[in-house]
Design brief:
Chain lengths: 373, 368
């Protein structure tokens, strides 16, 4: 059976309990990225009154030896609240809190890429960098096979599924609808959804977000997706190439613009930025998946609307290129561009940071520059 | 579905119709007590003519102790003495849940009534302002006895991704956790958090900070609520300290402790003194940290899976393999609390808190 046992527990019973009043008490669910750089963890605490801003939330800690993040003999790690959202599962006044992780010595955990991203973003505030990220993902049953696919086989080849409608084209739309609504409730800047080329594959877009917000909003959107799928009893995978062969991979195309690019004749600035990116392909590929490029190697083949991982290319309306300039931008001579290289399981903090380093701070070479704090 | 009870499949819509009926001024009070096993909870309900405003308004009652492993049939009446009242999250206001102490026919405390001596001790050490927080771990089982949602004739992938996990492949049975949390908040139980645990289908909730006798009261009622919520869903919560043999975590009830002195500036000194005292009484504590004099904990405290070995006492900052762990924050602030990681999930919190308070706070002359 493709859905989990948990999802078959009686929801009418659940609803009775979830409807109970809770007085002044507030449940705050702290969320963090674990030692894999991709996994999300969460735990909840009761607060005595509703926090109005993230500053009202206390620091916390957790057992890092159970999340691939520390040794048992020295396992305490710190959770520092970074961004607060409404909780679409427990509803108001309860909160979801995205946190940064610090090690026992209060230095950022190895997978805490938010820390440096925040520093870099604060250096370029005046450029007002905006991002929009297109998160692709695949729905799987608890057996690991894509949800809705025949048990021991494959659906018909790709063609009718992208933005499709109908039970023979769209697999699992309930999850997409529920996730969209949950994100809107939570305050996540979700701006759209569509069915993707491979059946059981979907996409949502988050943005436009300025600076550090891009990473924050995308991580919470991912958490909400996992949690919604858990409720339905299926699994969302961000693997960049879940099915080998003639099936699309999953990316996280990243749209980017600065104030200058959005103003008249911004196209010139866009083209300059792309030239810089062309000279730094290896640095970006390293930053665009959690395994320094190994994950993307399965996806960026040059086929299935991807560019080849070994070469950099750019072009107007070209989905086979590393960078695509939308046709409308080519016409208006201003706007934004789309970096199609990041994989679906990328860390948005380092993706956005690397674009800022190369395009605004004009860095060169394979290593990021160290700036004095 | 094989793993949930038949009861849970009865129509909840029909149930709701009846539960919506007004009850006039009458009030239903459910009396809860610990049975002869020292682990099991029992309950029965009576109607009162009006809503009790405090526990003093609730009358004594009695029950048949020969049916709860607590008395002989020839002399089976036992007394229920209300001690702590909560709102009822199942039948809702104005109805109540009331935790009771059990007295034998001669009005002496029943064998498994450890509250009686705990209350006396807490009164004795009142001026120290001792606070507790207990981390109750438990495992969800289907009615077939296998952990809930585990594959029928096998095991899930090894431990690693489940602790605080999210997603249908990592979190098994979150509905129970969510409902239990809300039920506790409604009832007035001092629940302060929840998280998924290291073994799949294992969860934890924390109750506290509670002063003195309140710790035991709130934890026992929280346990009752857990069993009752699971019953509604048709699955079972077990507090067994080692439900699955092999490379699977056990279930404990880590107990966090502080006194006024420990919470004040320079409190670390008092924490270290307390740990020194505890180190000299390891076997005495182990004996009361599960309902079988240490037998249950022997299966859990192996020195592996984030436990200390049952044979030795140890303490350390941020060390989850020690008997006592001093949180890193406390080590830095030089004040706060410490965590005793030895109690088993099925411990009696009255026995645990009494032993800790007694060892740490009574002078040698005062101890029995």
């Amino acid at each position: 059976m493709a859905t989990s046992t948990s999802s078959k527990l009686n929801k009418a019973v659940k609803q009775q309990y979830m409807g109970l009043p809770q007085g002044d008490k507030v449940q705050a669910m702290y969320i963090w990225i674990d030692g894999s750089g991709e996994g999300l963890r969460c735990k909840t605490r009761t607060l005595d009154c509703e926090p109005k801003t993230v500053e009202d939330l206390p620091e916390w800690n957790f057992d890092g030896s159970s999340t691939y993040q520390s040794e048992g003999s020295n396992s305490d790690m710190y959770l520092i609240p970074a961004a607060m959202f409404r909780d679409p599962f427990r509803e108001d006044p309860n909160k979801l809190v995205l946190c940064e992780v610090l090690k026992y010595n209060r230095k950022p955990d190895d997978n805490n890429l938010r820390h440096t991203c925040k520093q870099i973003m604060s250096m370029v505030e005046n450029s007002h960098p905006w991002f929009g990220m297109e998160q692709e993902y695949t729905l799987l049953g608890t057996d690991g096979h894509p949800f809705g696919w025949p048990s021991n086989g494959f659906p018909g080849p790709q063609g009718p599924y992208y933005c499709g409608v109908g039970a023979d084209k769209a697999y699992g739309r309930d999850i997409v609808e529920a996730h969209y609504r949950a994100c809107l409730y939570a305050g996540v800047q979700i701006c759209g959804t569509n069915a993707e080329v491979m059946p059981a594959q979907w996409e949502f877009q988050v943005g436009p977000c300025e600076g550090i917000n891009m990473g924050d909003h995308l991580w919470i959107a991912r958490f909400i997706l996992h949690r919604v799928c858990e409720d339905f009893g299926v699994i969302a995978s961000f693997d960049p190439k879940p099915i080998p062969g003639n099936w699309n991979g999953a990316g996280c195309h990243t749209n980017f613009s600065t104030k200058e690019m959005r103003e008249d004749n911004g196209l010139k600035v866009i083209e300059e930025a792309i030239e810089r990116l062309a000279k730094r392909h290896r640095y970006h590929i390293q930053a665009y998946d959690p395994r320094g490029g190994l994950d993307n190697a399965r996806r960026l083949t040059g086929h299935h609307e991807t560019s080849n991982i070994d070469e950099f290319s750019a072009g107007v309306a070209n989905r086979g290129a590393s960078i695509r300039i939308p046709r409308a931008v080519g016409q208006d001579k201003k706007g934004y561009f789309e970096d199609r290289r990041p994989s679906a399981n990328c860390n948005p903090y380092i993706v956005t940071e690397s674009l800022v380093r190369t395009c605004i701070l004009k860095e060169e070479g394979d290593e990021p520059t160290e700036y004095n704090k | 579905m094989a793993s949930v009870s038949m009861s849970s499949r009865l129509s909840k819509a029909i149930r709701q119709q009846y539960m919506n009926l007004p009850q006039g001024g009458k009030c239903q009070v459910t009396y809860i007590w610990i049975d002869g096993t020292g682990e099991g909870l029992r309950n029965k309900t009576r109607t009162l003519e009006q809503e009790p405003t405090s526990v003093e308004d609730i009358p004594e009652w009695n029950f048949d102790g020969s049916s709860t492993y607590q008395a002989e049939g020839s002399n089976s009446d036992m007394y229920l003495i209300p001690v702590c009242m909560f709102r009822d999250p199942f039948t809702l206001d104005p109805n109540k849940l009331v935790l009771c102490e059990v007295l034998k026919y001669n009005r002496l405390p029943a064998e498994t009534n450890h509250r009686a001596s705990c209350v006396k001790l807490m009164e004795q050490v009142k001026e120290h302002g001792i606070w507790f927080g207990m981390e109750q771990e438990y495992t969800l089982l289907g009615i077939d006895g296998h952990p809930f949602s585990w594959p029928q004739n096998g095991y899930p992938g090894p431990q690693g991704p489940y602790y605080c996990g999210v997603g249908a492949d990592n979190a098994y049975g979150r509905d129970i956790v969510e409902c239990h949390y809300k039920a506790c908040l409604y009832a007035g139980v001092k629940i302060c958090g929840t998280n998924a645990e290291v073994m799949p289908s294992q969860w934890e909730f924390q109750v506290g900070p509670c002063e003195g006798i309140n710790m035991g009261d709130h934890l026992w009622v929280a346990r009752f609520l857990l069993h009752r919520v699971c019953e509604d869903f048709g699955i079972v919560a077990t507090l067994d300290p080692k439900p699955m043999k092999g490379n699977w975590n056990g279930a404990g009830c880590h107990t966090n402790v502080s006194t006024k002195q420990m919470r004040d500036e320079g409190g670390l000194l008092y924490i270290e003194k307390a740990i020194e005292k505890l180190s000299k009484k390891h076997p005495e504590h182990i004996r009361v940290y599960d309902p079988r004099g240490g037998q249950d904990n022997m299966r859990r405290l192996t020195g592996l899976h984030e436990t200390s070995s049952i044979e030795d006492f140890s303490a350390g900052v941020a060390n989850r393999g020690a008997s006592i762990r001093i949180p890193r924050q406390v080590g830095q602030d030089k004040k706060g609390y410490f965590e005793d990681r030895r109690p088993a999930a099925n411990c009696d919190p009255y026995s645990v808190t009494r032993a800790i308070a007694s060892t740490c706070l009574l002078d040698k002359e005062e101890e029995e």
